[in-house]
From TrEMBL:
GO terms for molecular function: exodeoxyribonuclease V activity. Signal peptide: none annotated. It is an enzyme of class 5 (isomerase). InterPro entries: AAA+_ATPase, Coronavir_polyprotein_1ab, P-loop_NTPase, RecD, RecD_N, RecD_N_sf, UvrD-like_helicase_C. It comes from Giesbergeria sinuosa. This is RecBCD enzyme subunit RecD.
Length: 686
């Protein structure tokens, strides 16, 4: 263990614990100063209540475990914690100094920690000979790499790993020559000697012979384009296409609506090209609307249980899940459990984006080998026969090495069709950690597409929100000017068109924050933008609900039909011509469809001028502003900046509160502790 920081005596709680009571007292103090959450120290107290003999190491491990779980990790990896506590915990120097004091009276070796944990009846030894009596904590993993879990997350990880192993163990038999014929029709024939390898064709060919597959790639690499062709292929080769049950889903309503629009448009284009060769209109009809994963599984109010589960399976043969990077571990476990063994699931997503808000980094874990490929000779033979091209040798496992089963069902698309200009170059530079290139692109403000604003005061951001900037005029003025053109007394269709226009204008611009709290966070900026728009005479806030208030739903409510992440605008209820103006309702768009809910029924919403980068996943805006706050804490990561940049369609502005923040963020990679990769590699029953 290496602690290089000096102990600041005046700030760190100085108590050195030797007993259970002292340890609990120290953990409580850490909660009071904000190093831990109250919940974290309370859970240590709970463990001490369950086990009167609990060793201090167990109590500390429990508090750190739940602390990490609250930050998206699924487990506490003990070896890295002992070797590099700063990297694992991401704590301040003060907190690390206090931890160092505590460490001095805890076991100094990994085996000492294992023994301290396994001595307790509250810990189940999953890797050893322990008896499973439903203990609340689980110690899993190899002796040299033990991981401590809350049982819930251990169970989810086991279930996900088992499902993936079962679904990828044996390829579904297919006739490669027939696949090739269809791929040539759907994508165009591969010409002899074609230089670039057709990853999109390969993705379709791979998904056809798997019950679970992953298509990953950056923005605009053609994930949805490929998924539409995969659906057409599945439809073409199915014995009873008229019975094929196809479902589309995504973690948020917006992402689901976008998926449906893109797939419909791609299938319509294909239909024009292929004519009556395939009955694609029937396929489009069979798909129905895209749904959120919560809606697909049948979320029920006030419970984590879904209507569909292992005992009542989803009625589906093919399921496409978009924006899979946002799917958290618990949702993934629920989804795979509810999927019939014979069904195919295809995950689409960008592995380099931020992981889900909730615990787990499932897509990242699944895509461990995506960049390298790691295809077997058998996969290479199939790829050659099904696509007419040879897989480049650098993507094959060296002969004699084992090829991971999941890798044989994973394809990374590598060429972006949409993200080719300065925004794409910046995204690539950030994603590959090329700090100098990223700074150069931003400094030159390439054709005003990219823009950098160094601001010591958050107030400097407001003009961007009110009037945009040179080269990027999309801002909140646009939707408010549209709002002012309300067709009072217009017909219902006219009013609906106006609502759609207001919603579309609002979607042109967004402020994205790294954090929620503070002047530079979403909460502070929401208030500041509201006031700035009021000062500009564009908005007239009165009370909590006012005309034009944009809101984001923060909790799923299946009864109301609103889901976490949905964004709507407060507008007068649409009325038949001649009737008095209605009460305020929040309008949401699902593609061309409108939904609305009375404001008094929406309890879990927040204003949405500014939102966190996390919440923006699955959305794109014409002009996106990313705000980097003054303190480069652990949230400021390469993934966060990459995700923010890739939300921008035509223009991107980076606001940095201090010099060096972009560099610091790009140098910080998010590493979520999880056992999923280990389980997939070494067997799920570990
Ligand atoms: N092989 C191709 N030939 C021609 N056009 C393509 C091809 N692949 C993708 N495109 C086009 O490139 C654009 C981006 O494709 P698509 O939307 O499928 O990418 P994506 O990876 O799903 O993007 P996002 O991550 O933003 O969802 C679309 O206009 C699509 O029609």
């Amino acid at each position: 263990m290496s602690f290089s920081v000096e102990l600041p005596v005046d700030t760190a709680p100085a108590l050195v614990p030797a007993t259970v009571a002292d340890t609990l007292q120290t953990l409580r103090q850490w909660s009071e100063v904000g190093w831990l959450r109250r919940l974290d120290s309370a859970l240590a107290v709970w463990v001490a209540d369950l086990d009167a003999q609990a060793e201090p190491a167990l109590l500390v491990a429990t508090a750190l475990l739940t602390h990490l779980e609250g930050r998206g990790h699924t487990c506490l990896p003990l070896a890295p914690l002992l070797q590099r506590p700063a990297a694992v915990l991401g704590w301040s120097a003060d907190a690390l100094s206090a931890l160092e004091l505590l460490w001095a009276v805890l076991p100094s070796t990994l085996s000492g920690w294992r023994a301290a944990l396994l001595n307790s009846p509250v810990v189940y030894d999953a890797a050893g000979l322990g008896q499973d009596t439903g203990q609340p904590l689980v110690l899993s993993g190899a002796v040299e790499a033990p991981r401590l879990y809350l049982r819930r997350y251990w169970t989810y990880e086991q279930a996900v790993a088992q499902q993936i192993a079962e679904r990828t163990a044996v390829p579904v038999p297919v006739e490669p020559a027939m696949v090739r014929g269809w791929l040539d029709r759907l994508f165009g024939a591969t010409s002899v000697g074609e230089a670039t390898f057709g990853w999109q064709k390969l993705a379709c060919a791979m998904a056809l012979r798997g019950r679970l597959s992953v298509i990953t790639g950056g923005p605009g690499t053609g994930k949805t384009y490929t998924a539409a062709r995969l659906l057409a292929l599945l439809f073409a080769v199915d014995e009873h296409p008229e019975r094929l049950r196809v479902a589309l889903a995504a973690p948020t309503g917006k992402a689901a609506a976008r998926l449906k629009q893109s797939i419909d448009a791609a299938l319509a284009g294909l239909h024009e090209r292929l004519g009556a060769t395939l009955n694609l209109p029937m396929l489009t009809q069979r798909m129905g609307p895209a749904r959120t994963l919560h809606a697909l599984l049948g979320a029920r109010p006030d419970t984590r249980q879904f209507q569909y589960h292992a005992g009542r399976l989803l009625d589906v043969d093919v399921l496409i899940v978009d924006e899979a990077s946002m799917v958290h571990l618990e949702m993934m476990a629920a989804l795979l459990a509810a999927l019939p063994a014979s069904a195919r699931v295809i995950f689409l997503g960008d592995k380099d984006q931020l992981a889900s808000v909730e615990a787990g980094a499932v897509l990242g874990d699944l895509c461990r080998d995506a960049q390298a490929g790691r295809y077997s000779a058998e996969t290479a033979d199939y790829a050659q026969a099904a696509t007419g091209q040879s897989l480049p040798v650098e993507y094959l496992v060296p002969s004699g090495s084992a090829a991971p089963p999941l890798a044989q069902h994973t394809v990374m698309l590598r060429e972006s069709r949409r993200f080719v200009g300065p925004i794409g170059q910046l995204a690539l530079a950030v994603n590959t950690g090329e700090v100098a290139a990223a700074r150069r692109l931003l400094a030159h403000g390439t054709a005003q597409v990219l823009w950098r604003l160094d601001a010591s005061d958050a107030g400097a951001i407001l003009p961007l929100a009110v009037q945009g900037r040179p080269g990027a005029l999309a801002c909140y003025r646009c939707y408010l000017e549209q709002l002012a053109q309300r067709p009072v007394g217009g017909s219902v269709p006219e009013q609906e068109d106006w609502v759609r226009r207001v919603l579309a204008e609002f979607e042109r611009f967004r402020l994205l924050c790294a954090v929620r709290e503070g002047d530079w966070g979403a909460i502070g900026l929401n208030r500041a933008v509201e006031r700035a728009l009021q000062r500009a005479g564009l908005l007239h806030p009165r009370g909590e609900w006012y005309l034009g208030r944009p809101v984001m739903v923060t909790r799923n409510d299946p009864v109301l039909g609103v889901f976490n992440g949905d964004i709507g605008i407060t507008l007068p209820a649409i009325q038949e011509t001649g009737r008095a103006a209605g009460s305020l309702r929040v309008y949401f768009a699902d593609g061309p469809q409108l939904r609305s809910v009375g404001v008094s029924r929406l309890a879990h919403v927040e204003t949405a001028f500014a939102m966190t980068v996390h919440k923006s996943q699955g959305s794109e805006f014409e002009h996106t502003v990313l705000v980097l706050p003054p303190q480069a804490g652990p949230v400021l990561s390469r993934e966060l900046v990459y995700t923010g940049i890739t939300r921008a369609r035509l223009a991107f502005t980076l606001v940095s509160a201090q010099p060096g923040l972009l560099t610091a963020a790009m140098q910080q990679r998010t590493q979520r502790a999880s056992g999923l990769q280990d389980l997939l590699q070494h067997g799920w029953a570990a």
